[in-house]
Specification:
Blueprint (H helix, E strand, L loop, with lengths): L7 H16 L5 H8 L6 E8 L5 E6 L5 E6 L4 E6 L4 E6 L5 E7 L3 E6 L4 E6 L4 E6 L10 E7 L4 E6 L4 E6 L5 E7 L7 E5 L4 E6 L4 E5 L5 E6 L5 E7 L4 E6 L4 E7 L3
Antiparallel strand pairs: 1-20, 2-3, 3-4, 4-5, 6-7, 7-8, 8-9, 10-11, 11-12, 12-13, 14-15, 15-16, 16-17, 18-19, 19-20
Length: 260
């Protein structure tokens, strides 16, 4: 400041105050997040919000693309949020160790428990309608990690994290129709189905990446980032937006992506 005149000093201070008041009330997470997040060139971080959910796991976009659903393995709670992570409502599922959630139509949900290996269909206010147990033997913490639904074909996909990574396909009645072993990432923590292109988006925590797969499970593109413990993924292909939720810090990240 020593190169400025005594008259310039108060002017500079006044300008700084005006900038401060202009920014007051705005979400300051965007520039801070953008400055500290490393992503691939086809992905851009635009917002970061703390959410009031303990250990959030999995994520899905509502059919009208206006809200997000997530679950907590602490107490088996299902949460509905707006696109900025503000809680709109919640209810207890009656299940332990919830790991996956997906929307089914306008008022339906499906959740999956890693402990019991059960997929449960319910309404958006928590009323159970049917359930089915996955054929997924192994240790308690080696069960299903995510669940997503294809509304065009009425098909469910359940995801096993690793040893090995497995994708199970189920019909509308929750009967298994096929399974495939996955080997393109270190682990598999979440997924989201894009009905516009018929692509399955699969996220890997340990590989710090999201893989976009076609119906034959061939990789179409890869998005990378450096989020610690990403546990949930939701995609709006039409808006070119992707949301990722972090289990450890309870942070919801919003990205935009370029076409592929």
């Amino acid at each position: 400041m020593k190169n400025f005149s005594s008259l310039a000093t108060p002017v500079v201070c006044l300008a700084a105050l005006l900038v401060l008041f202009a920014c007051k009330g705005k979400d300051k997470a965007v520039p801070e997040a953008a400055a500290t997040m490393s992503t691939s060139g086809n992905l851009k971080l635009v917002a970061r919000h703390h959410i009031d959910v303990e250990e959030p796991s999995d994520l899905d976009l509502s059919e009208d693309r206006k809200t997000l659903w997530t679950v907590s393995d602490e107490g088996g709670i299902v949460y509905q949020m707006d696109l900025n992570g503000h809680i709109l409502g919640s209810f207890g599922s009656g299940l332990e160790d919830l790991e996956g959630v997906t929307t089914v139509g306008h008022k339906g949900l499906a959740v999956v428990s890693e402990k019991s290996r059960e997929i449960v269909l319910m309404t958006s206010v928590g009323k159970h309608s049917s359930r089915s147990k996955l054929d997924m033997p192994g240790e308690r913490n080696k069960g299903p990690e995510s669940l997503t639904y294809d509304p065009v074909e009425s098909v469910y996909y359940a995801l096993k994290e690793k040893t090995p990574g497995t994708l199970i396909t189920l019909d509308a009645s929750l009967r298994e129709t096929s399974r495939a072993e996955l080997n393109f990432a270190k682990d598999y923590s979440s997924m989201s189905y894009d009905p516009v292109r018929g692509h399955l988006w699969v996220m890997s925590d340990e590989s710090d990446a999201v893989y976009v797969l076609d119906r034959d499970l061939r990789i179409q593109t890869i998005f990378s980032f450096d989020i610690e413990q990403p546990e949930g993924l939701a995609v709006d292909y039409e808006a070119r937006k992707m949301w990722v939720v972090c289990d450890k810090s309870s942070i919801l990240y919003t990205f935009t992506f370029s076409d592929y």
